[in-house]
Amino acid sequence: MATRIKLFLFCNLFCFLTVISAQQSNIDQALIRAEMEFLASDAMQGRASGSHDELLAATYLASQLREIGVEPAGDEGAYIQNVSGEFNFYREGKKQWTTRNVIGRITGRDEKLKDQVILLTAHMDHLGVREPVNGDNIYNGADDDASGCVAVLQLARALAHKKPPKRTVFFVFFGSEETGGQGNRYFLEHPPVPLKNIIANLEFEMIGRPDSAVKPDELWLTGFDRSNLGPELAKHGARLVADPHPKQNFFQRSDNYALAKQGVVAHTVSSFGLHSDYHRPGDDIAHIDFAHMEEAIHSMLGPVEWLANSEFKPEWVEGKKP
Ligand SMILES: [Zn+2]
């Protein structure tokens, strides 16, 4: 009898936990979709770099960080870091530019490890309104890079709902990546912590669709063989493989690169399969594979949590430091 009751209780508990975790997953799914539907909506007009629409995205991301319970680490006790000054542009040369970054922080709980920072980043801007393609002139940037912003938000959410990790984690959304990384450059000149304290940066770029060049549940890491970070994350459950498009030089093409040049072990996580909607109005919500995106984000939660609690310090492979 006793065994039967125990078995009965165990089954009930098991069913209860299964329901809870299914509900949790439904909530995550709904959150991911909700955040994407706002950031990549036509109402945001493509979040053009340095524009009012980019500021709307920044304000939204800041309010999400507040709701999640991440501490503000921008200007004057707020999340937004205002960026203003003269920047060198690729084609036009020197120009006055205004943009912003959004910066949140979870302070590490370990006296010894809390000065070591894990930096999780994405860029919030896209191309705005431009010449129409098939009658659509809003370049929504759902994959590029609303998907990365939502990944960083979800990682913040997951980490904030547990006891603080041993290391400090920063969540940063850069402005004006598409115009040459002005937000990122300003961040490097006005970092919220000394750059030498940042032991790893993972930039999330274009994870909204699977890449047929790798397995369906895999993500790739730019510059995978340049440091031991990717292999070590993979050992801890990340389904991360080497970038299958080396000719595209993706390691150099996102905000991670400026950090890498400063010595920070910095890579980009992506599953961009060179789709034809890249930098076109077709990069919209209708083309997001939400099952893939949710799975991609989930697959990184455990490994990022491990990194934030470990004493492992990633290093460049000899001769591969940019
Ligand atoms: Zn991008």
If you had to describe this structure to a student in words, what would you say it looks like?
- The chain is α/β, with parallel strands linked by helices and 322 residues long.
- It contains seven helices and eleven strands.
- A hairpin with a 3-residue loop joins strand 2 and strand 3.
- 46% of the residues are buried.
Structural class: alpha/beta
The overall pLDDT average reads 93
Uncertain runs: none
Describe the main β-sheet briefly: 9 strands, mixed
Helical residue percent? 25-40%
| Total helical elements | 7
Shape call: globular
Distance between the termini: 68 Å
Radius of gyration: 20 Å
Beta-strand percent range: 15-25%
Provide the list of bound ligands, each named once.
Answer: zinc ion
Please provide the count of β strands.
11
- Output the helix-strand order: HHEEEEEEHEHEEHEHEH
